[in-house]
Sequence to fold (106 residues):
Amino acid sequence: MIIVTIHFSEIFPNWARDTALCITTFTNWLGNSIISQTFLTLSKAAGRPGAFFTYAAVALVGMAYFFVFLPETKGISLERTDELFRSRKTFIGFKPHSKGTAEEVE
Fold:
């Protein structure tokens, strides 16, 4: 948990860091709670392998979303990252990016 918190504190710009840390911490705990509350029921209904495959499928859908809709930020300063996200619509229901490279911002 501590590594996740440290990572989140480094990826957000200063002006949004407090709010973003609250949202990401809440989302992390919510996800942990959902898995904890549903695992026993799901493992009884679908078996342990079925439960793990269900959670894996949800994780794969999440990974696909991030690969399609979020641009690459490697090599971009934190201030330029802010500009990148303000210039693109990168959330649910908006257009995907084609390459998502740092060169698009510059």
Remarks:
- Confidence is low (pLDDT under 50) at residues 92-106.
- Residues 17-69 form the longest helix (53 residues).
- The helical segments are 2-11, 17-69, 78-87.
